[in-house]
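Report of the visiting student (M.T.), summer placement. My assignment was to run the structure pipeline on a short list of targets and document each run. The first record concerns MmgE/PrpD family protein.
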Amino acid sequence: MADTEVTRTLARMASGLAIDDIDDDARAVARQCLLDWFGVTIAGASEPCTRLVAEEAEDQGGHPQATLVGLGRKLASRQAALVNGTASHAHDYDDVNMTLSGHATVAVAGGLLALAEKTGASGAEVLTAFVAGYETACRVGALVMPGHYAMGFHSTATAGTFGAAAACGRLLGLDEERMARAFGIAGTMAAGLKSQFGTDCKPFHAGRATEAGLLAATMASRGFSSRGDILDCAQGFADTHSKHFNPEAATGPAPGGGFHVRNNLFKYHAACYLTHAGIECGTRLRTGETLDPADIVSATLRVEKGADRVCNIPAPKTGLETKFSLRMTAAFALAGIDTAGMASYNEANATDARLNAIREKVGVDLVSGVPSTWSEIVIETRDGRRLSAEHDSGIPADDVAAQGHRIAHKFDMLAGPVIGGNRAGALKAAVMAIEDQPSVADLMQLAA
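After the run finished, the structure tokens were exported:
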């Protein structure tokens, strides 16, 4: 491990990335990531966990440097990063990347945009820095997967901190040496445990990651000392956080070639991503087979065994817990509940007798040798039918333009009711033309 130079290589990649290095598809998906981030963050601004974090941040005081998205106020840049990062993950409706096994955008965007607003950075600078951060988060994830996630670390919070440091470092113009030190500072702060899924701490992980990455980059820019080989060294990040060490995966091409951001997976159901394939299966059988839930005798949901420690709460009691319940999200799909609607994940549905009766018919079969994003559901009915469907939600979209239309619709649904249709439309147009923005400050004001 000590003979590798992963930290230096990733620092070189992040510090040297230029806007012209990013191909058109990767740029398009990066813009979609940012638009999706604004949508989920605006929607998450009113959530209790966001309110509590904002109250604490405002109690601490500070210079009004950066906007609290969806709240119309300003705080110091690190405080804004913490609040906005928490809000962006509050509904668990944000995008994912399976190389990271987590949520790269929410770990990167909050700190980056707060710093950009403070410094008056241009949209092209922000887009470049975002891609640098996104790629770094995925590459650090690739370095330590699958052991890191299996041990119980939430990679959004851990690898995501490195991504935020890379994005903010790139915006600040850190050279390779200082970027490597920013990674060292990030590595000593990176933290987050999967045991907190289903609590306010999960969205707080995203807030802390993006805030810590911002701090790491700014401290490195001031000359703060740290090791420059934190990913490689004995008792460093990889050594202490995983049984696996994959330098080739970390420094090599992304799956399919090009940029990791091109493999971004957007959410169209407001629940944990590992429930999405099961939702798709249940919906397909309900609509395609005209299945009445009352006719179900039993339903077996087959998923990869790792989901057991991520989203297998057997009998959720709260709306937040339903997002991490394979059985309940399958019941939602079979009953025709709107799984795209955030309001569906509430205590009333969690305790609804009809939905619980469907949930009790759903058994989870944990299997090996299949992708974590794959599911199959097999249903036995009262009239003797045996119905089945399978789906893999881990395949990136082929048609980037069509994906953009879906993200734009999702954004309208999330942002319009909060900030109004006119402002939401102006914000959407600004984000989708972010390279042309001379400063992101005006864009952030639209999101206030």
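The chain has a mean pLDDT of 96. The beta strands are 66-68, 73-75, 296-304, 362-367, 374-381, 386-392. I thank the supervising group for their guidance throughout the placement.
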